[in-house]
Write a structure and sequence with these properties.
397 residues; alpha/beta; Rossmann fold; seven-stranded mixed beta sheet; five-stranded parallel beta sheet; 14 helices; globular
Length: 397
């Protein structure tokens, strides 16, 4: 059956003939994430999600001429644009990757897109770069993201706080593209809804002491402190200083702060605090949880988005009959959106067979993927609260 499928794919896809001179071809995909830096506790699970999709496709034997897909990891650091750019360059020039899953954080994603992906014509799908500014980046049709923009997250965060009756907050953000973009989006939405922001203050990552920053935030006052930072870096330090000084004991956390480390470090001290991160209650999300089992922490942010990002690259290759980014980039929107047969996690082999036969698919994936014009994901959010020192889902938005 497998041999018949491969033969069918080769005859149905004209461009696939380029692979006919060698069987079991290797296609390398970059997995560029911040394995060190302010979200290093999150990225191993994100990488595992992407690599699960690659293993699934390789095992199927159905991609192009029976190609195997090999992940090649590189460290974006999340915050050092120069290091991320150099790492991405190595992936392309030395490792010969045919697409990038990642980067993760917005600043390094913008740098890699402008300095590496566009000049080299390489497709880049980020699972977690959420800055609104990336929607306007010059990308030559090469950039997509499976997480929704912070333009949307800012609105959702404002809605949650207003619905909870919180009408006055202090706001601090990590001083980079992610933090500033989210801060601006939230402040605009919150004030438009009738809320008041007493202070907006940037904080720098990597400091040992955040008592001065917390002192300024406390002086301005507010019912809650909104911390648009990183769970492994300055955001964590802000929360610790606020708790130690008694300045705040109720917080609101966007996606960069939500992860196991948050509750590991603060537990019930932050009970009643709330937040949101990308997530849906779609059928695909449930299937993904079952598929992962205990292989990695599926509740960690952006694991589903990482699986979907990798899957979309490979499915677009199949639709194009080519692993070359210039050939498959225009097929990413086609495989991600309707019309076509809906595809859930664990069904990548089925999707590859449909595409090989000239059919259409609508990749729903783990996160109900739907691309808007320009490659942004429409996306949804999971609202969470801290109860008895643990994160609990409140609802999906």
């Amino acid at each position: 059956m497998k041999n018949l499928l491969m033969a069918t794919a080769a005859s149905a896809l004209v461009a696939g003939a380029a692979f006919a001179d060698g069987h079991a071809n290797e296609i390398k995909l970059g997995v560029i994430l911040g394995y060190t830096g302010p979200i290093e506790s999150l990225t191993p699970h994100m990488a595992a999600g992407a690599e699960m999709a690659m293993a699934e496709v390789t095992e199927s034997g159905a991609l192009l001429d029976g190609a195997t897909v090999t992940p090649v990891r590189a460290d974006s650091t999340c915050v050092d644009a120069g290091a991320a750019t150099a790492a991405a360059e190595r992936l392309i020039t030395s490792d010969g990757i045919k697409g990038l899953m990642g980067p993760d954080c917005s600043g390094v994603t913008g740098a890699v897109l402008a300095n590496v992906a566009v000049p080299n014509g390489v497709v880049l799908i980020s699972p977690s770069a959420t800055s609104p500014g990336l929607s306007e980046a010059e990308d030559n049709g090469l950039f997509f993201r499976t997480a929704p923009s912070d333009a949307r997250q800012g609105v959702v965060m404002a809605e949650i706080l207003i619905e909870e009756g919180v009408t006055e907050v202090a706001l601090t953000y990590t001083n980079n593209d992610y933090g500033k973009g989210l801060s601006d989006a939230f402040q605009a939405a919150y004030e438009a809804a009738g809320g008041s922001v007493t202070i907006v203050a940037a904080h720098e990552d990597g400091k040992a002491d955040y008592s001065a920053e917390v002192g300024a935030l406390a002086a301005a006052g507010g019912e809650r402190l909104v911390v648009a930072g990183y769970v492994d870096q300055g955001g964590n330090g802000i929360v610790r200083a606020a708790l130690d000084s008694g300045a705040f004991d109720m917080f609101h956390f966007p996606d960069g702060m939500i992860g196991a480390k948050l509750t590991d470090d603060f537990g019930s001290d932050i009970d009643g605090s709330m937040g949101q991160l990308a997530g849906t209650e779609s059928e695909g999300a449930s299937v993904f949880v079952d598929l992962v089992g205990d292989a990695f922490d599926v509740s960690s942010p952006y694991t589903g988005e990482s699986y979907d990002a990798a899957a979309l690259i490979m499915l677009a290759m199949q639709a194009a009959g080519s692993a070359e980014p210039g050939d498959y980039k225009d097929h990413i929107m086609d495989v991600a959106n309707a019309p076509g047969e809906e595809i859930h996690p664990g069904e990548l082999a089925k999707a590859l067979e449909i595409l090989a036969g000239g059919g259409e698919i609508n990749y729903v994936g783990a996160t109900a993927v739907e691309f808007l014009e320009g490659g942004d994901a429409s996306g949804g959010f999971r609202q969470v609260t801290v109860e008895d020192g643990e994160l609990a889902t409140v609802q999906y938005r």
